[in-house]
Amino acid sequence: MKLDPITLLLTAGTSISLLFGGGNVTSTFNSLGNAREMMQTATAKNNELRATQQAAKNQAAIADERYRSGCLILLYKGQLVAIAQGKPAYDPTTKQPLPKGTVVCDGYGTTAILEPRDFDGDGKFQPVVASEAFTGNNQLIKQSLENNRRAAYQ
Prior knowledge:
By secondary structure, the chain is of the alpha/beta class.
């Protein structure tokens, strides 16, 4: 096997570059590894943002349906309040807790379903705000405030 002078010169030059410039090759490979890691992180972040956006759309559709179907608007001392998870709601006429499964909402876009919970461990379950969903559909919220029934909130 006979090597021509150009191939021999290129091979020798590449070998010498690798031998004396090894730090640069290592640095280049490290830079490529860092770039790949940054790309993977950016891709993961984009996927997370897409999933969050899809979840928000799904929640908005649920909340919109709850407002349309006549959720009970929760009031505290006659005023609109933002509902919060774990709080009970009461029938304004009987002062008794609303039953489990009741769909409630506020004037700010949050809807929920009352679910039984035993927070103090006494074996008595009380329906409280749970399974929340939010919508930013201000027109639907305003329409619901005008048409839907009211309930007391503490």
